[in-house]
Amino acid sequence: MNLGQLRGVIPAVVTPFGLDGSVNYQVLEQLADHLTGQGVHGIMATGGTGEFPHLSDEERFQATRAIVSGADGRVPVIAGTAACTTRDVLRLAEHAAEAGAAAIISVPPFYFPLPDTALADFFTSLADNSPLPVFIYNNPLYTGNPLSPPLLAELLQHPRIAGLKHSGTDLGELVEVIYQIRFTRELDKCLMTGIDSQLCGALAAGADGIFSTAACVAPRQVVEIFALVTAGDIMAARAAQLRMQPLNRFLEYDPGYVGPAKEALRLLGFEVGYPRPPLPGLDAGQRERLRQALARLGMLTAVAGESS
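-> structure tokens emitted (308 positions)
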């Protein structure tokens, strides 16, 4: 497919670990199969939710291959290839292509602050040399290298850059990119938010969907929001979005999103293990509040006397 025309919900999937700390590829394949069966429109592998900084190159390759196997051609798999150098990202892009991914997605290089010229050169080099189409992942909080709307609009003109995951807290920046691409340049690109609490608003403003951590845990509920907005039922979509907020709090604020995502999946019966140290899991109080959030969504049985 033309990935610039991709629309919908793309879960950012966790990377399961076994008791010995190794990647459990069998569970990962099962999780990809489950998510695909819940109506998602793609799967993002080895991103932040997938703990890419904690994975070796070989683990990232095998994890992407397991997700591709679980998806079984039903939806495209977009492989996270984030790294600090152009050379490393392109090497990971080769691995992603070998594993069967449909595209790659990368944040800007992190740690060293970079000027816009260097950031433009980085993504242009990826687009020119990657064996797969490229998605830009703007995540300024985690990278320290924000991509401004004018820079994104410039980069998205490249024919091998398929789209954008925008995880900036300022929804207005995504709206500006949508305006520049859709109305000024009339380009067909996939423009998505990466923040779960923004989904309904982003869709109403013209975004094409979401790269979503929440959809790894509650895919049916996130797909419902997308379907309601697409059908024009904004009031029902808004209500569905607000029902998700107790869960989204765990996936956007303290204590970070990987530990809560894995804890939620364990509560739902997926043996995904715990984050690799030093990334923390949840304490008892956080675990109980997360369990209640899932219960309010009808995903777990509420305890006696608990209000919904």
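Residues 302-308 have pLDDT under 50 and may be disordered.
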